[in-house]
């Protein structure tokens, strides 16, 4: 019975391999990411999130399900995150100094492993749309000062006690929507929007626009 079961599994595997064609490739590009929504207290914005430019790189496997439909799992490394802006923050240079209202800006860089799985549908031989879920894990994050009106000498330094780096949710789940064009049989141009569907750190979600190229190796 065991031999019959193993033979059945083998025959099914061979049948699936014969029915579905798979291709492998690499991809890379730039992204524009931002946390949302802004933090507010009593109707006043206390922390504004702004977009930042990053990058992504990785690989993919495209499995053809029919002439027009395919499924594509990917493994990507990405630098994304957000910029922060605090306007008119009350601060003192020392306890003896009068309070001043200053602006503070930082750059939050998040380094993540992304695992998207998208279904692709080809409207024509060259144009396709895609959609699917994405799970990501942020294994590192930095918060760099871009502007500090209270102490300009700290600009460019890393904030080690920032809540963005001391205690943040590493896991994120998003939904991907995208379009693409096959430039050649092996090269494609892709535009994708990833919208976070879970709230991280109990106050924000992620939004990322990816734009880049994919190249089929095999």
Secondary-structure blueprint:
Layout lengths: L1 H18 L2 E15 L2 E3 L2 E7 L1 E13 L4 E23 L8 E23 L4 E22 L14 H4 L4 E12 L4 E10 L8 E12 L2
Antiparallel strand pairs: 1-4, 1-10, 2-3, 3-5, 4-5, 5-6, 6-7, 7-8, 8-9, 9-10
Number of helices: 2
One letter per element, helices H and strands E, the order comes to HEEEEEEEHEEE
Helix fraction by DSSP (H/I, runs of at least 4): 10-25%
Q: How many strand segments?
A: 10
Q: Structural class, please?
A: mainly beta
Mean pLDDT: 88
Question: Overall 3D geometry?
Answer: elongated
Radius of gyration: 23 Å
Proportion of beta-strand residues: over 45%
Q: Are there runs of 5+ residues with pLDDT below 50, and where?
A: 2-18
Report how far the terminal alpha carbons are from each other: 38 Å
Strand order of the largest sheet: 1-4-5-6-7-8-9-10
Summarize the biggest pleated sheet. Answer: 8 strands, antiparallel, barrel
List the main descriptive attributes of the protein structure presented here:
218 residues; 10 strands; disordered N terminus
How would you explain this protein's 3D organization?
The protein is mostly beta strands. The chain has two helices and ten strands. An eight-stranded antiparallel β-barrel has the order 1-4-5-6-7-8-9-10. Strand 8 (171-182) and strand 9 form a beta hairpin. The longest helix has 18 residues, at 2-19. The chain is elongated. It starts with a helix and ends with a strand.
């Amino acid at each position: 019975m065991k031999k019959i079961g193993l033979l059945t599994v083998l025959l099914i595997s061979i049948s699936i391999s014969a029915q579905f064609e798979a291709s492998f490739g690499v991809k890379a590009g730039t992204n524009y990411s931002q946390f949302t929504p802004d933090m507010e207290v009593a109707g006043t914005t206390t922390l504004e999130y702004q977009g930042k430019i990053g990058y992504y790189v990785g690989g993919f496997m495209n499995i053809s399900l029919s002439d027009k439909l395919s499924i594509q799992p990917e493994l990507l490394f990405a630098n994304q995150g957000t910029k922060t802006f605090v306007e008119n923050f009350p601060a003192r240079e020392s306890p003896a100094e009068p309070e001043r209202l200053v602006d503070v800006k930082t750059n939050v860089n998040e380094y993540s492993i992304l695992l998207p799985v998208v279904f692709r549908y080809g409207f024509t031989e060259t144009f396709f749309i895609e959609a699917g879920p994405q799970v990501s894990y942020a294994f590192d994050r930095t918060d760099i000062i871009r502007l500090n009106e209270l102490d300009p000498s700290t600009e460019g330094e890393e904030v080690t006690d920032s809540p963005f780096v001391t205690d943040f949710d590493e896991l994120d789940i998003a939904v991907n929507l995208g379009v693409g064009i096959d430039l050649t049989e092996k090269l494609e141009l892709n535009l994708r929007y990833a919208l976070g569907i879970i709230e991280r750190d109990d106050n924000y979600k992620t939004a990322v626009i990816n734009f880049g190229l994919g190249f089929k190796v095999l």
